[in-house]
Amino acid sequence: MLSAFVITGFLGSGKTTLLMNSVREHLKNRRIAIIVNEFGEVGVDGKILKNAYSQVLELPEGCICCTLHAEFEKALWEIRQKYDPEVLLVETSGAAEPFPVMLSLQSLGCTVEGVMCLIDAYNFEKYSHEPTTRHQIGSSNMLVLNKTDLVDEEKLKSVEQEVVRIWHSYRLKNLFTGEPVFRDFKLYKTSYGKLPVEVFEGIFALKAKLEAPEEDYHQHHLEHQVLYFDQPLEYEKLVSLLESFPKEVFRAKGVVRVKEVPQALVVNYAFGGLDLSQTLPDYQGKSFLVVIKKSDN
Questions:
Q1: Are 145 and 119 in contact (CB under 8 A)?
Q2: What is the 3-state secondary structure (H, E, C) of the chain?
Q3: Which of 70-84, 128-142, 153-167, 179-193 is predicted with the least confidence, judged by mean pLDDT?
Q4: Alpha carbon distance 101, 72 (integer Å)
Q5: To 5 degrees, how large is the angle CA 51–CA 47–CA 53?
Q6: How far is CA 9 from CA 29, 189, 228, 229, in A?
Q7: Range from 47-51, 67-71, 126-130, 171-175 that averages highest in pLDDT
Q8: 2-200 belongs to which CATH class?
């Protein structure tokens, strides 16, 4: 059976960075394939990951277990036929809960080796109340406190305590028996998504048969807007644009060329924080930003 990992976490928690760092380091000698299930019609993470991997297949937004099940099954068949991977990695949308992905993977003959939820330790208090966040945590058996370099020990301890509390309150349970799907979890603390090799050695494999719960596991309502730029921007103008976003904007991510830098910049904006340290040397597409905020509806 094909081994699969599900990587979940709220918008801006660091899922793509984890794929770029830990996975590339620990799985570099194995045949891996990645499916990116993104929010919006522009696949930001897919464009970024294609600069590091070739076996990346993007799916449009939506719940994989229902509206996208046919595409997901087709994607897995295509990946197996073309690449015969040893490991499949599924990065969920930051606006989605992981249970439908887990359910679909099992129904398609994959072994779910682990579900890891990334938590932005620096911004956690800004989104910890979101239902999506709580179900992402409760549906995982690996909890990763990311961006620990940005917080002090006191705040990190506070975030850890709240994450553990949420896990116990929201953990998945079998619909028929009431038993928890995951009896325990493993907690990691890291920066830049760098994790130890044990995470990818299949020691947390989900062996229970999953059943669909009564809850409606779908994305919560968010709005997104795509901004395109025909010409390179001045660096300061790009920064000013991002800093002018209202507080309702959770996330902005994209690839933008600026006049002062020869390589395209990966834009990572989350809850007012900005990172422009990553570049894409071989990027050939348009400059764009996907801006995501909570819907008023």
A1: yes
A2: CEEEEEEEECCCCCHHHHHHHHHHHHCCCCCEEEEEECCCCCCHHHHHHCCCCCCEEEECCCCCCCCCHHHHHHHHHHHHHHHCCCEEEEECCCCCCCHHHHHHHHHCCEEEEEEEEEEECCCHHHHCCCHHHHHHHHCCCEEEEECHHHCCHHHHHHHHHHHHHHHHHHCCECCCCCCECCCCCEEEECCCCCCCHHHHCCCCCCCCCCCCCCCCCCCCCEEEEEEEECCCECHHHHHHHHHCCCCCEEEEEEEECECCCCCEEEEEEECCEEECCCEECCCCCCEEEEEEEECCC
A3: 70-84
A4: 9
A5: 35
A6: 26, 14, 26, 29
A7: 126-130
A8: alpha beta
CB 10 within 8 A of CB 135: no
Phi, psi of 55 (to 5 degrees): -90, 60
How far apart CA 228 and CA 286 sit, in angstroms, is: 7
Domain 222-294 belongs in CATH node 3.30.1220.10: yes
Which of 98, 89, 80, 77 has the alpha carbon at shortest distance from 4? 89
- Domain boundaries, given as residue ranges, for the chain: 2-200, 222-294
Tens of pLDDT, residues 219-254: 455 676 778 899 999 999 999 999 898 878 877 878
For 53, the token pair is 């991997």
Handedness of CA 99, 105, 111, 113 (dihedral sign): negative
**Residue 63: predicted pLDDT:** 44
pTM: 0.69
**CA distance from start to end of the chain:** 42
